[in-house]
Amino acid sequence: MTEPETHTLDAPGAELHYDVREGDGPTLLLIGSPMAAAGFVTLASHFPDRRVVTYDPRGSERSRRTDGAEESTPEEHADDLRRVIEAAGGAPVDVFASSGGAVNALALVAAHPELVGTLVAHEPPAASALPDSEFALAASRDIRDTYLKSGFGAGMARFLALVTHEGPFTAEYLERPAPDPAAFGLPAEDDGTRDDPLLGQNMRTCGAYEHDYQALRAASTRIVVAVGAESGDTFAARGGRAVAERIGVEPLVMPGDHGAFLGGEYGQTGKPDEFAAALRDVLAK
């Protein structure tokens, strides 16, 4: 696989950065949110026969916001993805999208199914689709409120407690004492910054997004909703199963957990070889 070539793209309210690794095969777009292109280096290396495109979502790493807005929405991200696909050489492309990226990719397919041949939506944290959505959404709002009030460590501790929680959210969950940031290796002091793209820009809007299930069921895109074999009943896995049910597809079980495709990026290592092999099989069908 060639070294990635970086490009910039102007979008309303943002300057986007995306990378293209040239290959002879069809284009594969790898996306997360707010995880940026740097999170997909290992996974991209498993597809030297593909033309691989990665990007930094607005507000993440190299893609700076120019509008001063405090939050980003899945609709904005979906339109950014449309622009990246068109600028990178056109459609249709295959897409692997994880976590918030899966939410944004589903929004893209609902609006522009002609742009995507196959979408593998890996563990979208779709709180709005859960039977306990009232409490899941309240917990998500609390994360952002805590971050704005007390800073990164306090907000991220609540986020980690949420994403590792097994099973439905309840009123009792919301009444739990605030987790200790130190228990997660996080700083307890507030450094005053409020520019974290996960806690500040996407925390409320991502899970609260109401998917257009009618459009997704009617889309020409082949939609595969995937969950990790080791994810249990954690938040994003439950969201994936709920989305799959509403679209009318069986969830696909893939190796590992939520970060299974990572090979050391951001200090996390999953099962990247097994995961990439499973993804290749899915895309080949």
Automatic annotation (TrEMBL):
Keyword set, alphabetical order: Hydrolase
Domain of life: Bacteria
Entry keyword annotation includes Transcription: no
Keyword set includes Hydrolase: yes
Residue stretches making up the AB hydrolase-1 domain: 36-165
A GO biological-process term: glycerolipid catabolic process
Protein name: Alpha/beta hydrolase
Lineage: Bacteria, Bacillati, Actinomycetota, Actinomycetes, Glycomycetales
